[in-house]
């Protein structure tokens, strides 16, 4: 079975290599139609091609090309109403002679809808009747009976991706545009999440410069964030004491712990971040300086919270 897997992968890789070296006939015409489309790219097919079509639509939509999937059978039973005059339709079919598509094409032509075919059969009905036909040349499917859609659907999938990315690059689609359509993904979070959405604001730990060591330890423990901010009288951050500072202090043999106050061990003028800053800015600051907590300040530079590296990692920042 392992040998069969290797053979199938090699066969599919060779098919992809062939269409990359020798671009399919009709590709330029199809790209021209897609680029000039003023509406949506509607994709349709039946069977395995329909499944590939759904993925193609998802890729188009996420990369800035408005798209819609309609199953060819459903199109013949009312879903044609979803297709507008400015839309373009892409029909997927290995044989190009599927009954549903043969019934659908004349209706689309009567509606004056531009048709792009993606098929493996150059002389098929679908190829002849479309405005542009992308012909995917392949030797045979990967199964020994040359029946199960494998190589053919892989080529459909690859062409769909290629069309979407070609349109993306021509349009100048950036990662900011991509994030707009993926607000729940890691990139969207990095570009749109602000510090104030993730920072801790309830019972945030703070101490003052003259506080004894015992109170500082209590403040850090109560806050459960591994640090306490040292504040001035006007609530600005003068310093920061972390768990690490306490551990290093306890390892010293030359000091009287009873005489230690917060100002003796705090990091003066620590790194801070504005609450309205993007969360990725806080993450990059922590990573650059190898720290795990940042005091958060408002526009008046007053202490309003703490953001911890774990808050950012939990949201997918990495």
Give a short summary of the structure.
By secondary structure, the chain is of the alpha/beta class. It is 46% helix and 16% strand.
Number of strands: 12
Mean pLDDT: 91
Total number of helices: 15
Shape: elongated
CATH architecture of the largest domain: 3-Layer(aba) Sandwich
Query: What would you call the structural class?
Result: alpha/beta
Output the CATH class name of the largest domain: Alpha Beta
Strand content: 15-25%
CATH topology grouping of the largest domain: Rossmann fold
Query: What is the alpha-carbon Rg in Å?
Result: 31 Å
How far is it from the N-terminal to the C-terminal residue, by CA? 39 Å
Q: Can you tell me the residue ranges where pLDDT is under 50 for at least 5 consecutive residues?
A: none
CATH superfamily of the largest domain: Glucose-6-phosphate isomerase like protein, domain 1
Mind explaining what this structure looks like?
The structure is a single chain. The mean pLDDT is 91. The longest helix has 21 residues, at 151-171. The chain contains 15 helices and twelve strands. The chain folds into two domains: 2-173, 3-Layer(aba) Sandwich (Rossmann fold), CATH 3.40.50.10490; 195-314, CBS-domain, CATH 3.10.580. The protein is elongated and about 90 Å long. The relative contact order is 0.10. The chain is α/β, with parallel strands linked by helices. It has a five-stranded parallel sheet, sandwiched between helices. It has a four-stranded mixed sheet with strand order 6-7-8-9. α1 crosses α7. Helix content is 46%, strand content 16%.
């Amino acid at each position: 079975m392992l040998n069969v897997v290797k053979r199938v992968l090699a066969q599919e890789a060779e098919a992809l290599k062939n269409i990359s070296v020798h671009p399919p006939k009709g590709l330029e015409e199809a790209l021209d139609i897609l680029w000039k489309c003023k509406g949506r790219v509607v994709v349709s097919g039946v069977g395995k091609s329909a499944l590939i079509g759904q993925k193609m639509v998802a890729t188009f939509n996420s990369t800035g090309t408005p798209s819609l999937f309609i199953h060819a059978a459903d199109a013949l039973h009312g879903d044609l109403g979803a297709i507008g005059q400015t839309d373009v339709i892409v029909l997927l079919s290995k044989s190009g002679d599927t009954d549903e598509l043969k019934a659908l094409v004349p209706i689309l032509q009567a509606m004056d809808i531009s048709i792009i075919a993606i098929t493996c059969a150059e002389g098929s009905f679908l190829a002849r009747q479309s405005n542009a036909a992308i012909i995917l040349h392949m030797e045979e499917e990967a199964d020994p009976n040359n029946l199960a859609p494998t190589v053919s659907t892989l080529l459909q999938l690859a062409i769909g991706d290629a069309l979407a990315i070609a349109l993306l690059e021509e349009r100048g689609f950036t990662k900011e545009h991509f994030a707009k359509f993926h607000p729940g993904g890691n990139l969207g979070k990095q570009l749109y999440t602000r510090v104030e959405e993730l920072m801790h604001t309830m019972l945030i730990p703070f101490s003052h410069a003259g506080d004894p060591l015992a109170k500082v330890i209590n403040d850090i423990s109560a806050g459960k964030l591994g640090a306490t901010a040292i504040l001035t009288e006007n609530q600005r951050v003068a310093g920061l004491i972390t768990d690490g500072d306490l551990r290093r202090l306890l390892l010293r043999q030359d000091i009287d712990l009873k005489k230690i106050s917060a100002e003796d061990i705090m990091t003066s003028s620590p790194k801070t971040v504005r609450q309205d800053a993007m969360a990725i800015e806080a993450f990059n600051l922590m990573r650059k300086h190898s720290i795990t907590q940042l005091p958060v300040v408002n526009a008046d530079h007053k202490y309003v919270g703490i953001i911890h590296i774990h808050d950012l990692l939990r949201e997918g920042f990495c």
